[in-house]
Here is the input.
Amino acid sequence: MFYRPEDGHGLPHNPFNALVVPRPIGWISSRDAEGQANLAPYSFFNAVAYEPPQVMFACTSGKPDRPGMKDSVANILETGVFCVNVVEYAMRDAMNATSATLPAGVDEFQAAGLERADCVVIDCPRVAGAPAALECRLTQTVKLPGKANTVVFGKVVGVHIRDDVLVNGMVDVTLFQPLARLGYRDYTRVTEVFRLARPDD
Here is the structure.
């Protein structure tokens, strides 16, 4: 089949998210100017540069009490910092719980029964026990076409790695099985890896 997005796809559900897969999940923690914590998962997330290390996530909707954006973006614009927590398979239910649309000012850490820890470089909470967490300073936001599409870019200024996922000095993702988003309500996890050498290696 072929379709133009502006004409509609004619399928029971939008296939776009099911084609760009798997997508890593950025479990974004933030804190507003008054110190209220927030935690929410974003599946439009990735690393975008090595030197200096940088990441991005995109917010694609607003909420009734905050039109045009979600609490994460509003908090980051207020404070200039955020933390990306890596979601392991064992934390899938907690991650899903933090995707609920809750009123601004409600602490998703508490709502999901998650322990928090302080970041080291930035004033922001992180998920205690997550296999990895990236402390970030906001570098820029970009408003994309559409009603509520905002991309947030951050420079990584601190990296937490849980000791038990390091083997011979390298991260072994099979030990924590990172969660990834597929289309619809589907997810997957990394349980095995294979290696390909580049032609110029």
In short: The chain has one domain: 22-189. The two ends are 39 Å apart (CA to CA). The chain has a mean pLDDT of 96. The first strand starts at residue 23 and ends at 24.
